[in-house]
Write a structure and sequence with these properties.
By secondary structure, the protein is an alpha/beta fold. The protein folds into six domains: about 5-80; about 90-175; about 185-330 and about 385-450, no CATH class; about 330-385, no CATH class; about 455-505; about 505-735, 4-Layer Sandwich (Metallo-beta-lactamase, Chain A), CATH 3.60.15. The protein has 24 helices and 24 strands. It has a seven-stranded mixed β-sheet. Strands 17-18-19-20-21-22-23 form a seven-stranded mixed β-sheet. The longest helix is centred in the first third of the chain and has 32 residues, at about 50-80. The radius of gyration is 28 Å and the shape is globular. The N and C termini lie far apart (about 60 Å).
Length: about 725
Amino acid sequence: MRKLMWFTLGFGAACLLCAYVLPDKALLALALACAAVAFLLGFAGKDRMQLAQAALLLFGCGAGLFWYSQYSRFYLDSASALDGQIRRASFRASDYSYATSYGSAVDAALVIDGKSYQVRVYWKDSQTLEPGDTIAGTFRFRLTTPDASEGPTYHQGQGIFLLAYQSGEVSVSREIEHSLRDVPARLRRQIKDVLQRCFPEDTSFFAKALLLGDTSDFSYETDTALKLSGIRHVAAVSGLHISILFALFSAVAFRKRFLSAALGFPVLALFAALAGFTPSVTRACVMSALMLLASLLNREYDGATALSFAALGMLMGNPLVITGVGFQLSVGSVAGIYLFGSQLRSWLAARISGNGRLRRWLVGSVSITLSAQVFTVPLCAWYFGTVSLIGILTNLLVLWLMPVLFGGTLAVALTGFFWQAGSTVLGWLLSWPIRYVLMVSKVLAKLPLAAVYTESPWIGIWLVFVYLMLLCFLLTGKRKPVILICGTILGLCAALLASWGLPLLDNTRLTVLDVGQGQCLLLQSEGRTYMVDCGGDRDTQTADLAAATLLSQGITHLDGLILTHADQDHSNAVTYLLSRVDTDLLILPPESASLEADTEAQVVYAQSDLVLTYGDTTISVFAPTFSGTSNENGLCVLFDTEKCDILITGDRSSLGEGWLLQRKTLPKVDVLIAGHHGAKDSTSPELLQAVRPETVCISVGEDNLYGHPAPELLARLKDFGCTVRRTDREGTILIRR
């Protein structure tokens, strides 16, 4: 019986509950209760394995609750005291800084009450910091843990418990003498420079990702293709890469256990440091180290126990690592392989004839890929809203190249320090298989049904159905895989039919996408789809959401895309969206050269009013009254269908709305999109009196810095009897008529 596995499961479950559900005050009492029940079960289950397993699970849960409570009390509380405070502080950079839309950012260490905390620091200048440099000044702090006043962020899973934003003058002090703790970061930068020099420009970004997990130079198109084709994991250093590294240094050591251990332990430690101790790398390196130790001590290596040990160690170091998607995907994929890999391998081996290497490779590759996806598919669906259907084929086509590419890239990095010409030639040779991997991912990602999207609730229902069938399959004595496979396929067909067909039954659909502090609207009627604006807090995430919403309905191209004005929160995702979804028509404000995108669509600058008509639908695009690029000169859109009228005024204030009312006689509308995300000087009483909307939708970001929607606006809407719907409270809003 794998005792450590059951204990770790309980420990991890406790950390997950503490991070998302349980209040701190109840943790110690719950820990004692779990320990008491575990003791009783353990006493009663001496000769019954199931009771003993339940006892270990509960004991681990109690230990996790106790550990989290003490970790929070003695470590996190000091950071919590700074939440929302503006303080003067001094940070020591632990890595190189990088550019952001805000200015610059760097991961740095901050000492509070004698304890060191990892902090992500944001400041307005573009000055470059190196490891060991000091940045000091006045900053506003935000906590990232569950106790944060503004809510937790994903940083907690990375061990970053505070964010610091410049609130006053800052100064930078350069490090005079380098410290040993900065060696990994400096060596990582040098390796990146070597790879940049030795690989051609079109492949160097992939080489850096393959060896170090650095995807900062990835284009949106490449990153999307890798995700949709199901091989994004090859660009994030993970267990696959560590297994290749393990095989390499074992071969160099002639598979001698003492020599392998002497070489392997420092190599694994250095590589984990170079990769930034990400959860997947840390987990894989710990498991590989345990394998070396087992060989050294002539002990049997048990993969499940090693995984449990690695996960438990990481949870004790930071209980909130359980919230990180990297940790969940890494542990989930390996757990799936250990639980289902051998059974799948046996089942496939019995059904695939032949005795050659090709058969063994095919059986092994398919069984590992499928078993690893048992737990990662629902995680990807939850976090990324995407399920790759083509992933098995893509993995078969490219994974056989990974040992060559990883080993070759490592050789380029090592030789590049002392033999530039040789490493450049090797980099040129390796570029061809890299181009092959990128080509395969891009081609397969563009295939119909390469992926499905959980933006459609029917796909979510299908996934639940599949996992219920899988559970029944595992619990049933007489297992019939054909029923499971056929049920999965038929369920997918039904989900796709519903996802694509049901929207066509609506006369009118308005979708206000939840893009944070921005705007992205879908207008649909009579089988046609128009989008108004495409911008939000984060450009790539906005594009992903917009594309997923369209593709989940089987819409691969827009009939038209209308941009009200050039502000980033209305337009910053357009280029990314058009790399995935085409449009027949692009309508732009007259003075908006900055909005031009690489598209084959007909581009129209609305110098004067435009009217688009099809069936019973009319789309009126109202041009600016005067020249200029201010909010007042943005386009306005009236979407008039048989059963619903929708008015969109962009970011116009009461002044711009007044100009519109002077020029046009507007009808009574069913839905009004609040101007300027609910600003107090937009959606004026005059506009409300003229159009008398039944519903007002506000596209606004949660906890935005502008105070939107303004209390004055909400009061006006209440006075006019409008139903108010807000993306910051509801998420994406769907109105059907």
